[in-house]
Amino acid sequence: MDYPRIEINLSKLQHNVKTITDKCKENGIKVAGVTKVFCADKKLVKAYVDGGVSYLADSRLQNFQRLKDFSLPKILLRLPMISEAEEVVKYADASLNSEIETIRAISREAVKIGKKHEIILMVDLGDLREGYFYEDDLYKSAEEIKKLEGVELIGIGTNLTCYGGVIPTPENLGRLVEIKNNLEKKHDIKLKIISGGNSSSIPLLYDGTIPEGINNLRLGESLVLGRETAYGKNIEETFSDVFKLVIEAIEIKDKPSLPVGEIGKDAFGNVPVFEDKGIRKRMICAIGRQDLLPDDITPYDKEITVIGSSSDHLILDITNSKIKYEVGDKLEFGLKYGGILRGMTSEYVKKVYV
Ligand SMILES: *Cc1c(COP(=O)(O)O)cnc(C)c1O
């Protein structure tokens, strides 16, 4: 079963990583390469390492099994579940945290196996996903962590443009640096990591306005897609086509654009709406919502439009294409972030490294 497949260009990926980590280095910033979007596939992780990332970071502990063979320090990105504290200590060197209860559990597990686990406390600067929203709560937690065994507070971080769509600015990231300074003074500690967010912080890096003091970024999308995520612009001298989806045509027929009969709910419980465009040439390809969503992909043939999909069928309108397609033809698509994430996760999609 060779299709559907995702072709991954490892040298283009490594080029992206090198270009962006070099730019970060110029600004005193180390990169944590985020591997969750490709389920920490070892060949891609190697491209990250060879490209120059300083840390490996993932949100799921299952993926850490595949990171084991790499010697770089590993950071758990998603706040740990208290129930996984034992595995957190076992597999990750550091984790992002915002609940003292969870940190206490991590401390207990770390003491049990004689390990030191590093804690990065998250600050919510307004995006309203994870992190301490009120500074005093953060200072209180920091004070307690100082007294706990088996854990060490090594830094603070923030995450923006994920839930609330808040864009990183010199002002909000400046506040992170300020909080770091306050924390160091208050508790007489030195923090080695000030993590200024994800791929949405890239524009500040390139226009030279990222506040001094930010010394870490956690990057996924920018490395794999050559794109920042604040405005969705391509990053200079990077590739946006590291990943390519190739799928096979299983039906090509002229059909009306309006279904025939009374309209009920579709396979996912929605009542579909259709526009009457007359008779169109339609193609079905062998991939479906179990693997990715119709919005996740962009046809290389610009005259093709994606109409929709069900669990295992992707329906395309090929009426305007200049190419005379036949059943069995292979069609190529670019992948957006969600497409890479879902496609790489689907065991029904073959991965091919080029
Ligand atoms: C996924 C994730 C990132 C990486 O985000 P990108 O936009 O892909 O760069 C960074 N930090 C955290 C906490 C994440 O969960």
Automatic annotation (TrEMBL):
It comes from the Bacteria. InterPro entries: Ala_racemase, Ala_racemase_N, PLP-binding_barrel. Keywords: Isomerase, Pyridoxal phosphate. One of its GO terms (cellular component) is cytosol. Residues 8-224 form the Alanine racemase N-terminal domain. Its cofactor is pyridoxal 5'-phosphate. One of its GO terms (molecular function) is alanine racemase activity. The keyword tRNA-binding does not apply. CDD domains: PLPDE_III_AR_like_1 (cd06815). The keyword Manganese does not apply. Pfam families: Ala_racemase_N. This is Alanine/ornithine racemase family PLP-dependent enzyme.
